[in-house]
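Meet the record:
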Amino acid sequence: MIVVRSALTSLLLMVSFASIVAQDQPQEPKKPKIEFEYKLLATNRTTTMEKEMNDAAAEGYRFQEVISGDTFFGGSEALVVMIRPTDDFMKGRFAYQLLATTKTSTMQRELQVASDSGFEHVGQSVFKKTFGTEVMVILERDNKVKPRLWDYKLLATRKTSTMQKEVMEAAAEGYQFVGFSSGSTFFGGNEVVTIMRRPRSLTAGN
């Protein structure tokens, strides 16, 4: 019995020692759970960007942010970040249109045509070309909800004081600010371009 007790005591001491040693060992930090996946798109052609955005949307990604500027290897590029949750891929839910033009009147017309098809303004930037800068607008359509129709108004001027006046006049007509950008356009020189919209229900005559 004495031998057995001695063996048990030795075993308990060994287990206790091993437990203490294990507690003293540095614990590896738990890796944080990745909740979102990101995709960065970069191109110097706006038509290519629209295709790449829709390809990413087919994989469950959604537009997050857009910027444009000079990159080290690509020259003047448009950069778009798209995002998708890791546990809920929304494949094919969203569709995108990218509008780019140096004429503000053309942009307003194209914005309205896209809006009539269920697309909404989600981002804008400027895109440097050989001659001047294009206003670049990204529009999104959610294919799983009934689209909300908007009337768009595009304001462009070289004087900020004039822009203030025009924005307030548009606001009095029910328009809301959605975005603006500044750049040198081929027809207007250095311009501030502001995009506003109002729900279709507020259109005069409805």
Observations:
- The chain has a mean pLDDT of 80.
- The chain is about 30% helix and 40% strand.
- The first strand starts at residue 36 and ends at 43.
- The chain has one domain: 36-202.
